[in-house]
Amino acid sequence: MKIAYPYLMFLGDAVDQLAAKTANGVKVWRPEWCLGQFRFPECRADLGIPDMSIEQAAEAGVKTVILGVANRGGVMPERWVDELVRALELGMDIASGLHVKITDIPALAEAAARHGRQLFNVRHPTENFNVGDGIKRPGKRLLAVGTDCSVGKMFTTLAVEREMHSRGMKADFRATGQTGIFIAGEGVSIDAVVADFISGAVEALAPANDPDHWDVIEGQGSLFHASFSGVTMGLIHGAQADALVLCHEAGRPHMRGLPDYSLPDLTTCMDLNLRAAKLTNPAARFVGVAINTSTLPENERADYLARAADETGLPAVDPMDTGVGALVDGLAS
Amino acid sequence: MKIAYPYLMFLGDAVDQLAAKTANGVKVWRPEWCLGQFRFPECRADLGIPDMSIEQAAEAGVKTVILGVANRGGVMPERWVDELVRALELGMDIASGLHVKITDIPALAEAAARHGRQLFNVRHPTENFNVGDGIKRPGKRLLAVGTDCSVGKMFTTLAVEREMHSRGMKADFRATGQTGIFIAGEGVSIDAVVADFISGAVEALAPANDPDHWDVIEGQGSLFHASFSGVTMGLIHGAQADALVLCHEAGRPHMRGLPDYSLPDLTTCMDLNLRAAKLTNPAARFVGVAINTSTLPENERADYLARAADETGLPAVDPMDTGVGALVDGLAS
Predict the structure, then answer these.
(1) Are residue B270 and residue B299 in the same domain, yes or no?
(2) Which residues of A touch B196 (CB under 8 A)?
(3) By CB distance 3.0 to 4.6 Å, which of A14, A61, A137, B155 could disulfide with A208?
């Protein structure tokens, strides 16, 4: 899977800005790829980029229409289908982050076949993976792990990739979720892989590389999340990470979606993740902590980071605020 | 999924006894369900039960034909299909442990539909599971974990179920792999579930029950197995086990399929499994160690078990040799 850019961001009839969260993430990290947005009149999301019709997008050179939006209900509205068929006719591919498979929509499947275009279901991996073999491979890898889900692993790893590039280091962000896949143009929705192949899929996603090349792997879930820990475990073992970054959100009241479960403290979380990581890379180590402090009053944020640094003995950053330079400093050594 | 018994064990043209390993496991644990075996003339496996034609099986009252055998190549031979169509015509269901889905074989799908029979692909769960919610549920659960794959988790849990029944305890074996599913008549091939739903599938497999009822859950993989640890982690978190049994095979030279990986020692393995288990059940504890000592000379086996008991401070049994009474003793308290 390689999604061609530039993109038209298809927002459809999104009910609010949150419904276009995925599209917004793509626009933040790949603004140069996002030539325009397609919105029906009642759409209440706005990426702040030019509105375009399907025809205008084709003229502007768009290669792929991105469905990075939650649609209402499980069924794709007829007018969406009509517009998307037109996009296929005009030579564009479609990449979808919806739960419904766009390849299962007959009108889209037929139009794609007729016009030789591609349909990508980024939530539904189609590749056949091998089971992980755990064999040590060259190249360096960094993996983000977390105290919980949705604590900034994607943001942190994208920021690390950008920082590495700015220092002239060889680095590739490796996407494991739908937003990341649109941003990278490729990747694997690791939580949608069959359980037996989690670590094998990660081995394929971040394969052998130059000794001085970094794969910066987006994490998923948490070893402390009762719903998704299996995904995280397989991700850790497949990554063979040299460097780990612990991600956390300040003030999170409980594990996401699990009101009965409190978050682990940072050092407990690091200890268990490190034990797991050492199975496939005995040299694995934490290089820092990335904390989303935006939930705190502004005058408390620096103290929070200082305490985290003190508690862990590692650099503690807020990627949106302080940047991630301190994390990358530790990787040259 | 509920597979009706009694069974006809379809061995086809199995090349040797090992190719019929699954069928053999079913016959060992459910001899009263296995009325006969179906073999082509060149079949080199033998379960030691009466040979039957499809017609004889129907007359004997067989309800389901079990494909518990590895077939050569990925394609089902035409003569297998012919016999299985005949079985459907005569009112029997078919349950398959093959990688190929029997529902994808048009002749079988059509015959099943025509005669109102069921086709089960036990390696391919069709149920839609929820993500795990981690909410504490009543009933007691025992889970087998292991230093490695294929170290006797199924055998151990089946032996525990049998021992519990012999003591008048309420207990159900819960199958997580294909052989176990044929033995139980139901279950989930947990390694074939989509990664996001591993713990949720286990919550569905071993649901809320009477306070004095034990679900005895077959384990899979190992937290120390670089290929399958994600499956194991989700299984542990979904099980909310009160009691854990550590399974091991004496003398295993390296992790199964991974020549570069040595096995963890017993206490290291128990420690990591217990930490994981305590996330969803803080009262989780190990009640014993089950070791397959058949790989050792007969005069070394008792010493090996004694050393394991000494090292772990827990009863150490060989289920095939000493039975599992000592494991169940610890569950009454």
Answers:
(1) yes
(2) 191-192, 227-228, 231
(3) A137
* Confidence at residue B192, expressed as pLDDT on a 0 to 100 scale: 96
Domain CATH for B174: 3.40.50.300
Q: Whole domain around residue A327: which residue ranges?
A: 140-332
Q: Which chain A residues are Cβ-neighbours of B200 within 8 angstroms?
A: 227
Please report residues of A whose CB lies closer than 8 A to that of B193.
194-195
- The pLDDT tens digits of the residues spanning A282-294 come to 999 999 999 999 9
Residue B322: its pLDDT value, please? 96
Provide the β-strand partners of residue A119: A94
Distance from CA of B220 to the nearest CA of A (A): 10
A153 in the same domain as A116: no
Which residues in chain B come in under a pLDDT of 50? none
What are the tokens at B78?
């035409």
Cross-chain Cβ contact A226/B279 below 8 Å: yes
Chain A contact residues (CB < 8 Å to B):
131-136, 190-196, 198-200, 223-224, 226-235, 237-238, 257-258, 260-261, 272, 275-276, 279-280
User: A284: closest CA among A230, A235, A243, A329?
Assistant: A243
pLDDT confidence band for A270 (50 / 70 / 90): very high
Confidence at residue B110, expressed as pLDDT on a 0 to 100 scale: 98
Nearest CB among A132, A135, A191 relative to B195 is that of A191
Contact, A133 vs A107, CB < 8 A? no
ipTM score assigned to the predicted complex: 0.93
Mean pLDDT of A164-178: 97
**What's residue A75's pLDDT?**
81
CA dihedral of B220, B221, B224, B225, whole degrees rounded to 10:
-170
Q: What is the pTM for the complete model shown?
A: 0.95
In this complex, do B237 and A229 lie within 8 Å of one another by their Cβ atoms? yes
The half-sphere exposure of B281 on its side-chain side, counting CA atoms within 13 A, is 26
Query: Which chain A positions have a beta carbon within 8 Å of B132's beta carbon?
Result: 226-227
Same domain, A60 and A115: yes
User: Domain total for chain A?
Assistant: 2
**Vertex A230: Cα angle to A154 and B70 (nearest 5):** 125
Can you tell me the mean pLDDT for A88-106? 96
